Automatic annotation (TrEMBL):
<keyword id="KW-0808">Transferase</keyword>
<feature type="binding site">
    <location>
        <position position="281"/>
    </location>
    <ligand>
        <name>Zn(2+)</name>
    </ligand>
</feature>
<dbReference type="InterPro" id="IPR003726">
    <property type="entry name" value="HCY_dom"/>
</dbReference>
<dbReference type="GO" id="GO:0008270">
    <property type="term" value="F:zinc ion binding"/>
</dbReference>
<feature type="binding site">
    <location>
        <position position="282"/>
    </location>
    <ligand>
        <name>Zn(2+)</name>
    </ligand>
</feature>
<keyword id="KW-0479">Metal-binding</keyword>
<dbReference type="GO" id="GO:0032259">
    <property type="term" value="P:methylation"/>
</dbReference>
<dbReference type="GO" id="GO:0009086">
    <property type="term" value="P:methionine biosynthetic process"/>
</dbReference>
<dbReference type="Pfam" id="PF02574">
    <property type="entry name" value="S-methyl_trans"/>
</dbReference>
<dbReference type="GO" id="GO:0033528">
    <property type="term" value="P:S-methylmethionine cycle"/>
</dbReference>
<feature type="binding site">
    <location>
        <position position="218"/>
    </location>
    <ligand>
        <name>Zn(2+)</name>
    </ligand>
</feature>
<keyword id="KW-0489">Methyltransferase</keyword>
<dbReference type="InterPro" id="IPR036589">
    <property type="entry name" value="HCY_dom_sf"/>
</dbReference>
<feature type="domain" description="Hcy-binding">
    <location>
        <begin position="1"/>
        <end position="296"/>
    </location>
</feature>
<keyword id="KW-0862">Zinc</keyword>
<protein>
    <recommendedName>
        <fullName>S-methylmethionine:homocysteine methyltransferase</fullName>
    </recommendedName>
</protein>
<dbReference type="InterPro" id="IPR017226">
    <property type="entry name" value="BHMT-like"/>
</dbReference>
Length: 300
């Protein structure tokens, strides 16, 4: 992939898919979150991908972050249908990419793999330490990763990982999986959300050949620059960063609080610090991605 080239361009990934779907009028308070629309309104997911592509993103992350066999089962969706919905998440992003093909730009689809806590829909992806063993977590993740890989994305996005145990489990699952992977931790300051030193967390993924980029996402923008330096120094791999807006998620009220701190000027600094892929997460919309794309292009 192009971001592995030593002198390749900085790439722009998308923003908050669920944020964009909510802005389009969809209630995502269901435990399936954006994955519910794989059932109810798949065309809206494709439209959201298109909005980010048109804004300048060249990577789309699929609507599978919170999708799980457990979650679908709780909605009365059997395993065979759940497999088809996971595959649909990839196909919708691919369809959006194909629709943009006429402009000659290269674009990629990253199948989103959220943490175990995301499927619980109780905010525990911002805490980690679920009380499960590494083996338990690997067994939970493996089936949906296999389905997503079989759907043919360009890579897997293991994202918002709060905990070294979960990162270790995922390294077990992706060994020999046959597709590139990025892994991004969710952090506070210089530690994972579970409180572990970020340098130790990055060291866990340093030697995995499948992991082609490492970094952070769904964190405060102010925590990004230091994380770039840590990721670069510990792993030597290309660095990807896509923080949220800087607002905080209130799990009890199921709402975001605070004010946005995300800006294109910060993205320029992240690139100067060594990030090779930049974008946004929750509360970052296509207009924000457009500003980032223009600022990064302007910085060369």
């Amino acid at each position: 992939m192009v971001f592995l080239e030593p002198n390749g361009p900085v790439l722009i990934t998308d923003g908050g898919l669920a944020t964009e779907l909510e802005a389009r009028g969809h209630d995502l308070s269901d435990h399936l979150w954006s994955a519910r629309l794989l059932v109810d309104a798949p065309d809206e997911i494709k439209a959201a991908h298109l909005a980010f592509f048109r804004a300048g993103a060249v990577i789309a992350t699929t609507a599978s972050y919170q999708a799980s066999f457990d979650g679908f089962e709780a909605r009365g969706i059997g395993r065979d249908d759940a497999v088809q919905l996971l595959r649909r998440s990839v196909e919708l992003a691919q369809a959006a990419r194909d629709e943009m093909a006429g402009d000659g730009r290269d674009r990629w689809v990253a199948a989103s793999v959220g943490p175990y806590g995301a499927a619980l829909a109780d905010g525990s992806e911002y805490r980690g330490r679920y009380g499960l063993s590494v083996a338990d977590l690997a067994a939970w993740h493996r089936p949906r990763l296999e389905v997503l890989v079989d759907a043919g994305p360009d890579l897997l996005a293991l994202e918002t990982i709060p905990d070294m145990d979960e990162a270790e489990a995922l390294m077990t699952v992706i060994s020999g999986i046959g597709i590139p992977v990025w892994l991004t931790f969710s952090i506070v300051g210089d530690r994972t959300r579970a409180g572990q030193p970020l340098a130790e967390a990055f060291a866990l993924v340093r030697d995995a050949p499948e992991v082609v980029a490492v970094g952070v996402n769904c964190c405060a923008p102010s925590d990004v620059s230091a994380a770039i330096a840590t990721a670069r120094d510990v792993t030597g791999k290309p660095v990807i960063v896509y923080p949220n807006s800087g607002e905080a998620w209130d799990a009890q009220q199921r709402t975001w609080v605070g004010t946005s701190q995300h800006s294109a000027q910060q993205a320029q600094l992240w690139v100067a610090d060594g990030a090779r892929i930049v974008g946004g997460c929750c509360r970052v919309r296509p207009a924000d991605i457009d500003n980032i794309a223009r600022a990064v292009a302007g910085a060369g």
